[in-house]
Amino acid sequence: MTSHRVRFERQPLNSQDEYFLDTDTHTAPTHIGGLEIYDLPAGAGPDFMQQLFAYLKSCPVRAEPFNYRLLVAEPEEPKATGKVPLTGAKKRKPKAVRMWEKLDQVNVEEHLYMHALPRPGGQRELGELVARLHVNRLDRHRPLWEVHLIEGLQGRRYGVYTKLHHSQFDGKRGMELSKYVRSPDAKARNVPPVWAVKLPKRAAKAGASRGAKQATLETLASWGKAVRSMALARRNRPGQGVIAPYSAPASILNGPLTARRRLGTQSLSLARLKAIGAAVDGGATVNEVLLAVCGGALRRYLIDRDALPKEPLIAACPVAMERTDAAASGNAVGQILVSLGTQVPEPKKRLLEVVASSRANKGLMKQLGQNAYTSYTHLSMLPQILTAKSSFGHRVLNANLVISNVPGPREPQYVNGARLEATYTTSLLLAGQALNITVCSFADQLDMGILACPDLCPSPQRIAVYAGEEVAVLEEALDLKPPARAHRPAARRPAAPRAATRKAAGTTAGRKTRARPQAA
Fold this sequence. Notes:
By secondary structure, the chain is of the alpha+beta class.
């Protein structure tokens, strides 16, 4: 079956969507991914995965934007005016217009794949496979998504790796979609996949439609506020107060990227992070404690490599903004810059520095308001956008890395009887940033997906291990006793490299699907 277009059903792109399409390169692709681990349902037979694959393949694509394809339309030539052009003036060719084109049929077989790990299928083999799948760019001739089933995981488990383009999805939107296919009811059956669910349209926010003149005036005013705030931030010392964009120190985590990727994973106890936050004078949020945990882990990792900068590493933390239109896809994201306190050896003092930095920069966001702060974010990212594809783009750094915290479901979840055990996000690496840490909260845990370019940041699993240990370090610094039955981290210390025997990607017992190309 081939895909067919629907005439006149098209949707324009916003500026952030354009950014993620413009900066998509071989070494820094701008898709995001999610790895979900499920326990097999009770009574599942040996052919469960084949049956699941066949069922998913039979489900038609109904949901937006899973049926959207990128359309590049050549604009019409301007009409002749009869005026004589100036001598030597060059005729400018109109810029092509990009928009989303809705398809009435999508071939699911071009988006759904199946892979098998060598049994018993450990965390190492799973991480290697997902890292290879994450490297490959999405085909722009088709809707920009893929779903990969992974069988053969140790302990009667299977994985689902989903790849989506950031021009259509941000982390919050991805989590919103998952609630339509998961259920707190273990007995729920015949639940369709996310691409087959008829999703509700977003309601337009009151006041979103306003005159072009008023919108232009508001935009100019917000940019004025943003420029003034950025100028004031330049006066602050590194890591103190509001952090100025492009003040991040040089580090081994930053440089020209290659196409290779590695994935580290870790799960932290939400209750333990809350207890740490409650024990701090003035209190600390879970997100602030999480940033301090990341800061401590990165400090140890950089000390191991004798590469700790004198100034603190700066993290860019995406912040979900309210959407002002009825679009079913796209991005509504700002970001704050936060010091990770990596230059501070004492864990408690490091946490306090992270808290102070986070609140100062959140205060700026509140002071400016949503429109002005969105302009502030766009302005701060402009040099990085303009140089992303240049040979020196890796030197124009707004921050050393991105750390995201995406809220997920607070209760156990099931999909057709299979219990969700963990959900790890594999995000994207921006030009010049070899490390990304994305955390998803789920029930009583925080699942960390640590994506790295191994040519600059080898062994991201070591950072994952250090993050698990840093929770205990903070508890000790604050005189807290770990819970009697503390959450046991899923991560392990990385073992020495070994040759792995595996079936070709795309192979299952008794049947084959098309193998996906591996990264060089």
